[in-house]
Specification:
Strand 13 and strand 14 form a beta hairpin. The chain is globular, with a radius of gyration of 27 Å. It folds into 2 domains: 464 residues, Methylamine Dehydrogenase, Chain H; 125 residues, Immunoglobulin-like. Strands 6, 7, 8, 9, 10, 11, 12, 13, 14, 18 and 19 form an 11-stranded mixed β-sheet that branches. A 6-stranded mixed β-sheet has the order 42-41-44-45-39-46, with no helix packed on it. Strands 36, 37, 38, 40 and 43 form a 5-stranded mixed β-sheet that branches. It is 10% helix and 44% strand. It contains 8 helices and 46 strands. The protein is mainly beta.
């Protein structure tokens, strides 16, 4: 055992020395300017007061569970969109209307790990209607409505042990593709972990998206070998019928993965012909299997969550659908797989290889037609590596992860170990520029860089380590993003800005595509909430046994009612508060002393519900929590709580 440990330590030391030598050999030349940025950088990212940014940037929140929205080039934080985690600022996950959005087949789940954003597309071009994002821990996909910047729907994914490789869409959002990070028994059951190789499987799920409403549905799942699927992308133009997914752990290790899943020289990229699989499902070749999951849809008319529980799903075995799935070998432990705007080049980044591999779509199709196979993996044919490789970017950096494109014939790859962005030319595979980042670059994003029509002006580098970039704020530091100008021949660093949570992925889009469709108010006449009060004359308090419903209103600068008596210890009180304002950006908040959840934050015309259970007699103030007017401080009220069994009559009003 000691000898093995010594050998392992020696190997790590040798790798470290090799890495040091490699990095020293390819470290970019220092900028001629002392600051390392252009002298006019501040001017180029400055957005004057009252002016708007050119682009929206949507960054996943990672362990925050949310999505953050920034303006580019300023780097200004515009909004945090609550998605997979409760958010006391807005009441998301606390209010009676939104709690169900976070309900799963496992019950209420107040947190998740949000990884990969994807903007909806029309013919392979971002259209700005919806933003999709995955939950990694409890497998789900959310759809965010970009007219309201609110989470509109969350669908759970069954038969999945971890939803990392997700949600990668086809060119018209016909499907979102979601693959499993962790293999599990399917159906899941109590088995010995050491039976991994025999009993654990992965799945790739195809989630259909209604082209008009955006409603999502688990259309079918594909049973796959029990390896760890990482990232993916679907094709464009000629390759649009295919989706590509990286994987690691072809060794099928279940312990000490960092060692035991790095033994093979190559891992695998799955190439799935989703059109062919779709036809096999339509022809009845998929089987109905257990697949309990929940779909949560927020109905804007009723301002409440509608929940649907589904018990079954369709499972397609590749053995029953020949020529629907192939594997392509790739250097070990790949991360990203990205498709260039033409749809011809499929780029894989191998984390443990100093190489970027480019596959040719036409070469892949010819290899399939010519039956150029190098063997099988779990009965799925492996395509011959030389027959499908278009080119290799040799020694570009250390730890290549993820690639995006500028639409001008160049690709940009993030490099984790050597902390840099590498720019290289499609077709010749030569590195033409480098830019160091600070530090340990994970993903990068070019607005539109994963579509058929990239904008090609800016690149956002999302670094994992911050160290000395900002003022210290204790042991935990914000993640560090950096903005690069890529409009010229050479990349230029313009800006550092901190991010929320840990971004794993991002999308950007021209602001004009979204901003003119942004919703400003909810029309009161269209509010169909079950407990709406559309005017002050509709406000009232209703007792139903030990349950009390307060139909309240809020308008500058008072609540109605603002005095309530006759509430008793043991009652459950529901405050249904409607914001009567019909003017943009006039929100009202609501909270009451002793509330054990969060505030309500209500947009103009919106109704929300706060549940409150008083524990002892007394006088309880409530107030508006969002500064709404010069008399905001006066926007308050009182509730009298009497002992259980008290004869205090129910009364309410505004003092008259």
């Amino acid at each position: 055992m000691e000898k093995k440990n010594l050998k392992r330590l020696a190997a790590v030391a040798i790798l470290g020395l090799s890495t040091w030598g490699f990095v020293n050999g390819c470290t970019p030349k220092k900028s001629t300017q002392a600051s390392g940025v252009p002298a006019d950088a501040a001017q180029r990212v400055y957005v004057p007061p009252g002016k708007h940014d050119e682009y929206y940037a949507f960054l996943s929140g990672g362990f925050s569970g949310q999505v953050s929205v920034y303006g580019l080039p300023s780097g200004r934080l515009l909004r945090i969109i609550p998605v997979f985690a409760v958010n006391p600022e807005s009441g998301y996950g606390f209010s009676e209307e939104s709690k169900a959005m976070l309900t799963t087949s496992h019950g209420f789940v107040p947190w998740d790990d949000s990884h990969h954003t994807k903007l909806s597309q029309t013919d392979g071009v971002a259209d700005g209607r919806w933003l999709f994002i995955n939950a990694n821990n409890t497998p789900r996909i959310a759809r965010i409505d970009l007219t309201t910047f609110k989470t509109a729907e969350i669908i759970e994914i069954p038969n999945s042990g971890g939803n990392h490789g997700s949600p990668f869409q086809t060119h018209n959002n016909e499907y979102l593709v979601a693959s499993t990070r962790f293999a599990v028994p399917i159906p899941n059951e109590d088995v010995a972990i050491k039976s991994y190789k025999e009993k654990f499987k992965g799945t790739v799920s195809f989630i259909s998206v209604d082209k008009d409403s955006g409603h999502m549905k688990v259309a079918w799942q594909m049973l796959m070998p029990g390896i760890d699927y990482d990232l993916g992308h679907c094709g464009k133009a000629g390759s649009s019928d295919w989706c590509f997914l990286t994987s690691y752990n072809s060794e099928k290790a279940n312990t000490l993965i960092e060692i035991n899943a790095s033994k093979n020289d190559k891992d695998l990229i799955a190439a799935i012909n989703w059109k062919k699989a779709e036809k096999c499902v339509a022809d009845g070749k998929a089987k109905d299997v257990d697949g309990a999951h929940v779909n949560n849809f927020f109905d804007e008319a009723t301002m409440s969550t509608k929940q649907t529980a589904i018990a079954k799903t369709k499972m397609l075995n590749p053995k029953d659908c020949p020529e629907s799935v192939y594997f392509m070998p790739i250097p070990k432990s790949p991360h990203g797989v990205d498709v260039d705007p033409s749809g011809e080049y499929i780029v894989g980044g191998g984390k443990l290889a100093a190489q970027i591999t480019v596959f040719g779509y036409k070469k892949m199709i010819k290899a399939i037609e010519d039956k150029k196979f190098a063997g099988e993996y779990d009965s799925i044919q492996i395509l011959d590596y030389p027959s499908v490789v278009e080119g290799e970017v040799q020694k570009p950096c250390l730890g290549p992860l993820h690639t995006e494109f500028d639409g001008k014939g160049f690709a940009y790859t993030s490099c984790f170990v050597s902390s840099e962005v590498v720019k290289w030319k499609l077709g010749t595979w030569e590195v033409v520029d480098r830019m160091p980042t600070y530090y340990s670059l994970g993903h990068l994003m070019i607005p539109g860089g994963d579509t058929r029509k990239p904008f090609g002006k800016y690149l956002v580098a999302m670094n994992k380590i911050t160290k000395d970039r900002y003022l210290p704020v204790g042991p935990e530091l914000p993640q560090s993003a950096q903005l690069l100008d890529i409009s010229g021949n050479k990349m230029e660093m313009l800006l550092d800005f901190p991010t929320v949570g840990e971004p794993h992925y991002a999308n950007g889009i021209a602001a004009d595509v979204i901003k003119n469709r942004s919703r400003k108010i909810y029309k009161l006449e269209e509010n169909k909430h079950a407990y709406v009060a559309r005017s002050e004359k509709d406000s009232r308090v209703v007792r139903e046994g030990n349950v009390v419903h307060v139909y309240g209103t809020a308008i500058r600068s008072h609540f109605k009612p603002d005095n309530i008596e006759g509430i008793k210890v043991g009652d459950t009180v529901y405050f249904h508060v409607t914001n009567l304002e019909q003017d943009w950006d006039i929100a009202h908040g609501f909270s009451v002393l002793g509330a054990d959840n969060a505030e309500l934050l209500l947009m103009p015309g919106e109704t929300g519900t706060l549940k409150w259970t008083p524990k002892k007699p007394g006088i309880y103030p409530f107030y508006c929590t969002d500064f709404c007017s010069a008399l905001h401080q006066e926007m308050q009220g009182y509730i009298r709580v009497s002992a259980a069994g008290s004869s205090t009559p129910l009364s309410f009003g505004t003092g008259n």
